[in-house]
């Protein structure tokens, strides 16, 4: 019996030593880790700071992460134009060119049926025509009167580039708005 107990005690001591070593290593690693709590109102730039830190001080974004952000960029662009078009009605701004009304219908339909929220060429073309319309620009100039992403003009002015086949966001992901509901 004494032999069994001593073997168990030796194993227990070895296991305890391994656990202690792991705890020490974890403690040393955590000393080097910097934790940062960012607080602020919605759309005040908290996520942008985290993204910039990842680019500047971290490993940057992998191709898979950039592919995931491509969808966010496309959705932000579509949502921005939707907000502008809806605001035109509330602000009483009519299209100077009557054919833009048909473009709005086409825009809504194409955006709704777009696979994976992307920007296929036909949707991008309709969006570009709408964005270049004088009345849409007038409504955009009054964006302080309605809710609009800060990045709206950035993306809408870059429609050709962000709708291009094979587009991967680089600095564009700093402009995208992705609502965070939990710590990252």
Automatic annotation (TrEMBL):
Residues binding GTP, per UniProt: 43-48, 150-151
GO cellular component: cytoplasm; heterotrimeric G-protein complex
UniProt xrefs under InterPro entries: Gprotein_alpha_su, GproteinA_insert, P-loop_NTPase
Any Pfam family matching the protein: G-alpha
GO biological process: one example: adenylate cyclase-modulating G protein-coupled receptor signaling pathway
UniProt keyword Nucleotide-binding present: yes
Record-linked SMART domains: G_alpha
Binding site for Mg(2+): 47
Domain of life from the UniProt record: Eukaryota
GO molecular function: G protein-coupled receptor binding; G-protein beta/gamma-subunit complex binding; GTP binding; GTPase activity; metal ion binding
Gene3D superfamilies on file: GI Alpha 1, domain 2-like, P-loop containing nucleotide triphosphate hydrolases
UniProt entry keywords in alphabetical sequence: GTP-binding, Lipoprotein, Magnesium, Metal-binding, Myristate, Nucleotide-binding, Palmitate, Transducer
Keyword Manganese applies: no
Entry's family note: Belongs to the G-alpha family.
Subunit structure: G proteins are composed of 3 units; alpha, beta and gamma. The alpha chain contains the guanine nucleotide binding site.
Protein name per UniProt: Uncharacterized protein
Species of the source: Meloidogyne incognita (Southern root-knot nematode worm)
Source taxonomy: Eukaryota, Metazoa, Ecdysozoa, Nematoda, Chromadorea
């Amino acid at each position: 019996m004494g032999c069994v107990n001593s073997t168990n005690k030796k194993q227990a001591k070895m296991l305890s030593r391994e656990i202690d070593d792991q705890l020490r290593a974890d403690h040393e690693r955590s000393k080097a880790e910097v934790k940062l709590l960012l607080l602020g109102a919605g759309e005040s730039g908290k996520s942008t700071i985290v993204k910039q830190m990842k680019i500047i001080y971290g490993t940057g974004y992998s191709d898979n992460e950039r592919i995931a952000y491509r969808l966010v960029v496309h959705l932000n662009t579509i949502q921005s134009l939707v907000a502008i078009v809806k605001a035109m009605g509330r602000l009483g701004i009519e299209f100077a060119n009557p054919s833009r009304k048909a473009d709005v219908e086409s825009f809504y339909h194409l955006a709704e049926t777009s696979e994976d929220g992307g920007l296929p060429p036909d949707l991008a073309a309709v969006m570009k025509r709408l964005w270049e319309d004088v009345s849409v620009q007038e409504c955009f100039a009054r964006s302080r009167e309605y809710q609009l992403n800060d990045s709206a003009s950035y993306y809408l002015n870059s429609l050709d580039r962000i709708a291009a086949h094979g587009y991967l966001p680089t600095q564009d992901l700093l402009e995208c708005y992705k609502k965070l509901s939990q710590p990252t």
